Amino acid sequence: MVYFQSSERVRKLPVNFFDQLDNRLAESEHSGKPFINLSKGNPDLPTPGHIVESLKRAVDKPENQAYPPFLGKENVRLAITDFYKKEYGVTLDPLKEVAIFHGAHIGITGIPQVLLNPGDYMLITDPCYPIYYSSAILSQAQTYAMPLEESNQFLPDYSRIPKDILKKARVLLLNYPNNPTGTLATKAFCEETIDFARKYHIPVINDFAYASLGFDHNKPLSLLQTEHAKTVGVEVYTMSKTYDMAGWRFGFAVGNASIIQALNHFQMHAYSTVFGAVQDAAACALKSSQKCAADIVSTYQRRRNVLIDGLRRIGWNVASPPGTFFAWLRVPEGYDSQSFSDLLFDHAHIVVAPGIGFGENGNQFVRISLVNSEDILAEAVDRIEALHLFK
Ligand SMILES: Cc1ncc(COP(=O)(O)O)c(C=O)c1O
């Protein structure tokens, strides 16, 4: 075989953080007590039955066996605009302000590529979903990571961005509800964000992957609910978490028409179209009763309570996440995110995601996900208690 070197862009991409965690687990799995894997963000619940049935029907339709239209089927674009109107009171043009694609991942790597040129800066947060760094690399752009501090409710402080970075900033990429911290955006923060973006002429993307996952009746805000948001903003939505459809690969972006148009143009060249039957099933999910989505939130909320109440009972004084399906837990004194994750791995056979994987600022935290049953989470608490780390 002749070895062909990959492109500079591809060589710059880091090792996938979650893949590394999986490999470590795979190597150790046969050694004694089974592991509890609390590191993953892959929903464990089945897709609601009515959505699965709608896909089955859609597969039989001849129209779905041919190429679908480039911009997506009309029924799904209308379902998206109706959904945003019903859920958030936001009015959207189904042709000019909606783009569909194979999951949020495509949106958050695609939109920066349609807006950034080499040397531009993308503003992200530290910690953040690690793919944001890859997205900047694919765009041949630099990143400036705004620290998320617990003392500021894990919201960035725009006034701390250096002036020379502001001049070169061409995208602001946010993610609320936030992975990994579990934070929800406040109305005041959304307003501040839109004011900031308008003042400095920076397009803002909100990765709304955990849109439905707010606990204790706190419904997460859409950035587009903010006045003037569409003048500078787009939001990326996914079916993966709201409806447990992670494997189906369907997401969409809504908002600023110039960004949507550029994204649609890019996609026609880069990815082509989404399977029509998946589009029909997504339309069914968005148009049907949202009780299934509320039931999913209730399940995660019960799991969160089992985990957080349990950890507090054994003396680990942790904060309770208001949203997402992640708990972002400060590690006990004397540890950092990696050494504490190693301790749990080696002595409790529990896999958690070390916070350092989400950025330097995550180094005093570990991320535990709620995509495991209440029994498994309770067992994890028991295993941590047996380490006698607290009290
Ligand atoms: C913050 C965030 N954005 C995007 C995604 C990817 O979502 P999708 O399944 O729609 O590609 C994830 C998945 O875990 C995520 O955590």
Automatic annotation (TrEMBL):
<dbReference type="InterPro" id="IPR050881">
    <property type="entry name" value="LL-DAP_aminotransferase"/>
</dbReference>
<dbReference type="InterPro" id="IPR015422">
    <property type="entry name" value="PyrdxlP-dep_Trfase_small"/>
</dbReference>
<dbReference type="InterPro" id="IPR015421">
    <property type="entry name" value="PyrdxlP-dep_Trfase_major"/>
</dbReference>
<protein>
    <submittedName>
        <fullName>Aminotransferase</fullName>
        <ecNumber>2.6.1.-</ecNumber>
    </submittedName>
</protein>
<dbReference type="GO" id="GO:0008483">
    <property type="term" value="F:transaminase activity"/>
</dbReference>
<keyword id="KW-0808">Transferase</keyword>
<dbReference type="InterPro" id="IPR015424">
    <property type="entry name" value="PyrdxlP-dep_Trfase"/>
</dbReference>
<feature type="domain" description="Aminotransferase class I/classII large">
    <location>
        <begin position="34"/>
        <end position="384"/>
    </location>
</feature>
<dbReference type="InterPro" id="IPR004839">
    <property type="entry name" value="Aminotransferase_I/II_large"/>
</dbReference>
<dbReference type="Pfam" id="PF00155">
    <property type="entry name" value="Aminotran_1_2"/>
</dbReference>
<keyword id="KW-0032">Aminotransferase</keyword>
